[in-house]
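Q: I'm writing a short methods note and want an example of a predicted protein-small molecule complex. Could you take the sequence and the SMILES for zinc ion and return the bound structure as tokens? Please keep the output block clean; save any remarks for afterwards.
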Amino acid sequence: MTFEGHVQITIEALESTSKIYLNVANLTIKEDSVIIEPVDEETPNPGIQDWEVLDDLQLMRINLQNSAIRGGIYLIRISFKGIISPSDQDHGLFWDQYPQHNEMRYVMGSQLQPVYARRVFPCFDEPTYKATFSVTIVRKMHMTSLACGDLIKSELREDGCIADSFHTTPIMSTYLLAFAIVDYPHLQIISHKGYKIRVWARADVIHAAEYAMTIAAPLVEWLDDYTGIQNPVTKIDKVAFPTWGGAMENWGLVLYSENLLLWDPTWFETDQQLLISNVVTHELTHYWFGNLVSCRWWDELWLNEGFASYFESMALQDPLGWPGSEIVLNSRLVPMMGVDEMNTSTPVRPHIPTPWHAEDAFSTSTYGKGAFMLRMIHQVLGPTSFQKALRKYLNDYAFSTTVSNDLWAVFNQVAVEDNILGPGGLPVNFTELFTPWIDQSGYPLLKMHRDYETFRVTYAQERYNSSDLSLPPSTYE
Ligand SMILES: [Zn+2]
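A: Understood, no commentary inside the block.
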């Protein structure tokens, strides 16, 4: 399947340049459709000399006739065609299907994380290039289209299709955009604080969307209270896809596979209900950790995923009443330790030299070990200082991106302010303590040797390897 698109990008030239590079992958750019023009009459039009797509680099290079001037603001317009892939190749736009009344129904979704927005439209496709996005989707009359923003208006076109226009998004990264076209019914709830939560699923299973909708309201309000920040996106659509696999925190349009969103007590055991609670919590946490404040590059992905994974336990426990910390210990810590002791384990902050390596960042370390580092920090700082630090982090970096040092600096500052002392009686230095934790794989085993003749105790630290031990690691209090 294919689609047609048109993009209009507003850019400011930070310095004079005769070349503009945009990310493009698997798109066919229409001849003569590439146009640049200044937004005001005083700025000269640089004109386009020619353009080419550098497939190997997933870039499009626009060569200008005259240089764009420093400080000049320009519009670039491009028309293009792209591919809607089957749902098992979830890169860019994908189509999914399900049988109903003896016929096959087709729906569409998207997966742009980490580097697939460039398959949907030409753009600056790295998390640090945040922008606002105004989206219009053209659909058949009997379908519903969804985007990150709320619907503004629907217009009937001459060809009988409907053009839906959506509210402009907050400043955000391209990987968090989403597009969906479905023929689903939905359930809706509006929380006390005004978050509009809708869950969309095919008609045969829409009743099973009730649970995910019901828990989302107290969860999002808990996150709002805990962070002290009303999320800039108060519209939360969740859409269940029949065969597509995954869950993705797109800002305003979270997409799930059915088995991670729908729950019916006659289908599943409580385990599945817990899994759905976990996943819904995880994706909502990203609205603050990941969407409002994003990792600067994919090597720092743990700043998104560590928080979302850790909050699975915190948010589950408080508003939903699950034994959150116990669950997360069993479901995350034990499997994570098993993976991390292997020689193939990658560090929490892996080396991601190019966009083609971005998928490598999604590892057990990024999620699980990142979460347990935050758990250690939570225990060292205590609940009040931890919350204070997270509020400061979110406020300082809202609509921006961060690296680990930004987070450590916030924890360091709170340790000084709140007199949280470490060894030597000095305020805890998180940069020093945790940089080895994020850059090395494996985790330490402490060995204690007691010598009864000299009355000396010797401690040694080495990389943990379960095959060297006769006993599993224990916790002593
Ligand atoms: Zn996540």
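A: Remarks, as requested: The chain has three domains: 1-81, 84-286, 293-439. The chain has a mean pLDDT of 94.
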